[in-house]
Amino acid sequence: MMKNILMALFVLIPGKHFSQINFEIEKTKILEIIRNQEVDWNHGNLEGFMAGYWKSDSLKFIGKKGLTRGWQNTLENYKKSYSGKSEMGQLGFEIISIEFLCNESALVVGKWELKRTEDNPKGYFSLVWKKINGRWVIIADHSS
Fold first, then answer.
1. What's the pTM value of the predicted model, to 2 decimals?
2. Cβ–Cβ < 8 Å for 36, 44
3. Which of 26, 113, 118, 142 could form a disulfide linkage to 122, CB 3.0–4.6 angstroms apart?
4. d(Cα 49, Cα 29) in Å, to the nearest integer?
């Protein structure tokens, strides 16, 4: 009986602690991808920026023009809208929250801002992240 109680404590108490550590590690991994996206964007590297997205026809991007399906279609839309460095400007993200929906998915809410010579557009985004094959990727992006 005592052995069973000790075993339960061993499983339950450390498990809670380790899951909190894991979520912090996973949060750090997501934030690193977001920071890499900023760097790639600011160097004019749209393909590098898109590395944070799920390279799948099932990717969903919702913006002012509506729903775009697929990684390649999303990249092509970025290329049309941001054909050069002046259109791309300097991108900055501010993360408002990261909420884990389960061990393999998260919701990230934040603000984006482009600093350009002629204007300074900004807005908000919500990103659904999923851990696929051990790697965090954006599976749905709603930016306004």
1. 0.85
2. no
3. 113
4. 15
